[in-house]
Specification:
Elements: H1 21-43, H2 53-63, H3 66-84, H4 94-104, H5 107-120, E1 125-132, E2 135-142, E3 153-159, H6 166-169, H7 173-184, H8 187-195
Antiparallel strand pairs: 1-2, 1-3
Helix pairs in contact: 1-3, 2-3, 5-7
Length: 204
């Protein structure tokens, strides 16, 4: 059994004009696929074959297998990122909206925090909206770092590796982050993650 390479949850051109089909063809079709292919090559014939991607990520971190961690965590992060975006404008509602108001003061303040964290993150990495014991916060991780292994619940993530935006925006990360936060974040996905018992699981 191998780790799946999941399709995008929308058409390749569905996020235009904010993220182009060209970017998704490269980012999903080449970068994400390469991470999955490397995981499958690494686990073939080992006790990890047939394990879930979440189990592989935890094993790689615990055993200090940096190469396997990088590729498995990046596979997970990317699938979570695709689902964190939506071509249809969404808005927080219900328990998530109440938690945002409680912990950030307003949705606008949360968006500002997300933008500041994503834009100011140095070099490659990820900006996250997470929950721990029902309380929301914004965090960031470097390189392949993932909040999956941090004992907290990821709700949304923004990819700030250059390959997420360079084709469309060159070095203008702030323009990409503004577009994601203002127009593409999938608040329905965040609400589902906030309500679920455990954490989101990678598609089998």
């Amino acid at each position: 059994m191998t780790i799946a390479f999941p399709p995008l949850p929308y058409a390749q051109d569905a996020l235009e004009p904010h993220i182009s089909a060209d970017t998704l063809a490269t980012h999903h079709g080449k970068h994400h696929k390469a991470y999955v292919d490397k995981v499958n090559a690494a686990i073939e014939g080992t006790e990890l074959a047939g394990k879930s991607l979440e189990e592989i990520v935890h094993h790689a971190e615990g055993s200090g297998n940096k190469g396997l961690f990088n590729n498995s965590a990046q596979s997970w992060n990317h699938a979570f990122y695709w689902n964190s975006l939506s071509p249809t404008r969404t808005a927080p509602a219900g328990d998530l909206a109440a938690a945002i108001d409680r912990d950030f003061g307003s949705l606008d303040e949360l968006k500002k925090k997300l933008k500041d964290t994503a834009v100011n993150h140095f070099a490659s990495g990820w900006a996250w909206l997470v929950a721990k014991d029902g309380k929301l916060s914004v965090t960031d991780t470097h390189d392949a770092g993932t909040e999956l292994t941090a004992g907290i619940k990821p709700l949304l993530v923004i990819d700030v590796w250059e390959h997420a935006y360079y084709i469309d925006r060159k070095n203008l990360r702030p323009a990409y982050v503004d577009a994601v936060v203002d127009d593409l974040l999938n608040w329905d996905f965040a609400a589902e993650n906030f309500a679920r018992e455990g954490t989101w699981t990678y598609p089998a």
